């Protein structure tokens, strides 16, 4: 199964063009998104009834959920809340039959998320599972299921399931907007066109970043702290990048909303500390560049990740990695690739078991 790869994690990172292609296949049509598996439960009437969406998930799946939140908000104009499953079980805002609860789970077996599903059902909420595992418990118990088709994920750290979950939520948000006839058709089409290019863009991202990230991992192999900063979707992705570094490289990595550094975290920036600055979102690019200047002024070692063509970063950061330019909602999928690779190569250079990090299990069937 591993073929030419040294570890499952690397294989699964490199599998992402195919995982995304399979998740989009048969659903992304020239005339729009088709999700026949949801038609029976989700009639236009049922969708019109919704007032709120709650996305509930654990760990990396929760981070995918926060990206999904931005898509649902932008395309449907509905309020969306994202909660950790382990928190949702005990505390949540008002729930009723007009609140759609989306459960995101690669395995479809995570005990916390299964308990959250039971809680949602107790309140009469319609439920929709997005999972990578057909026939899993969460999929069987939810009212409806949308499958990601990433294929089996064997490394403990989730990679291809994460990017496939984001793609599935983008499909779902467009499909709902189509049925509700919401929003600007041209804007929706731009997103669909970008989704169609996504597997190729992910492939290019792998080619553009893999060697540079391998070298960077070696450069920071004696560092114990790492900061990831960004604004908007870049901040959400920073959360996921930090989790991967903690999990696989055992580095104390933290994500910060770039504009929040000056409200406290800047005190932690010491000379030479590595900072990964994500700057892939056009509307906040200039502000992120100002934040990079601030950490550079404290002599941090800054690696910028940005879109091809955004040359301004090269003047401010110590190193810049470029990734293809696409629709803003898809940038977190592309920018996830170098962060996954960094966790992998950092774990490897530090001699860790990258496929089976200490103290962790792939499927968490206890709360
Ligand atoms: C991190 C990771 C975990 C899982 C989490 C939820 O790389 O893999 O944080 O994302 O345990 O698992 P699922 O998605 O199977 O419910």
TrEMBL record:
EC main group: transferase
Biological process (GO), any one: amino sugar biosynthetic process
Active site per UniProt: 362
Main location group: cytoplasm
Keyword vocabulary terms for this entry: Aminotransferase, Cytoplasm, Glutamine amidotransferase, Repeat, Transferase
Annotated Gene Ontology cellular component terms: cytosol
Gene Ontology MF annotations: carbohydrate derivative binding; glutamine-fructose-6-phosphate transaminase (isomerizing) activity
Compartment(s) where it occurs, according to its Swiss-Prot or TrEMBL record: Cytoplasm
Plastid keyword on record: no
Name of the protein in question: Glutamine--fructose-6-phosphate aminotransferase [isomerizing]
Native organism taxonomy: Bacteria, Bacillati, Bacillota, Bacilli, Bacillales
């Amino acid at each position: 199964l591993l073929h030419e790869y040294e570890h499952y994690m690397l294989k699964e990172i490199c599998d992402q063009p195919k995982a995304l292609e399979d998740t989009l296949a048969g659903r992304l049509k020239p005339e729009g998104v088709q999700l026949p598996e949801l038609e029976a439960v989700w009639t236009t009437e049922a969708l019109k009834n919704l007032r709120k969406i709650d996305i509930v998930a654990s760990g990396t799946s929760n981070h995918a959920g926060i990206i999904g939140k931005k898509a649902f908000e932008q395309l449907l104009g509905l309020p969306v809340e994202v909660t950790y499953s382990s928190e949702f079980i005990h505390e949540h805002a008002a729930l009723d039959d007009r609140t759609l609860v989306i459960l995101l789970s690669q395995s479809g077996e995570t005990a916390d998320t299964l308990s959250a599903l039971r809680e949602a059902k107790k309140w009469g909420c319609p439920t929709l599972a997005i999972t990578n595992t057909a026939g899993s418990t969460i999929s069987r118990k939810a009212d409806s299921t949308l499958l990601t088709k990433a294929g089996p994920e064997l490394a403990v750290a989730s990679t291809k399931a994460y990017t496939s979950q984001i793609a599935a939520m983008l499909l779902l948000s467009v499909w709902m907007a189509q049925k509700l006839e919401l929003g600007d058709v041209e804007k929706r089409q731009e997103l669909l066109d970008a989704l169609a290019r996504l597997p190729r863009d992910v492939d290019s991202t792998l080619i553009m970043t893999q060697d540079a990230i391998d070298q960077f991992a070696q450069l920071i192999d004696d560092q114990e702290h790492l900061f990831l900063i960004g604004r908007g979707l870049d901040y959400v992705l920073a959360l996921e990048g930090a989790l991967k570094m903690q999990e696989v490289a055992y580095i104390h990595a933290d994500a910060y909303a770039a504009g929040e550094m000056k409200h406290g975290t800047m005190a932690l920036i010491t000379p030479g500390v590595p900072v990964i600055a994500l700057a892939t979102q056009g509307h906040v690019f200039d502000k992120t560049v100002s934040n990079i200047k601030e950490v550079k002024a404290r002599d941090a070692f800054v690696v910028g990740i940005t879109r091809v063509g955004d040359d301004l970063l090269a003047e401010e950061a110590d190193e810049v990695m470029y990734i293809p330019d696409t629709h803003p909602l898809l940038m977190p999928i592309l920018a996830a690739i170098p962060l996954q690779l960094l966790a992998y190569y950092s774990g490897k250079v530090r001699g860790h078991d990258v496929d089976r990090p200490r103290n962790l299990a792939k499927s968490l069937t206890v709360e």
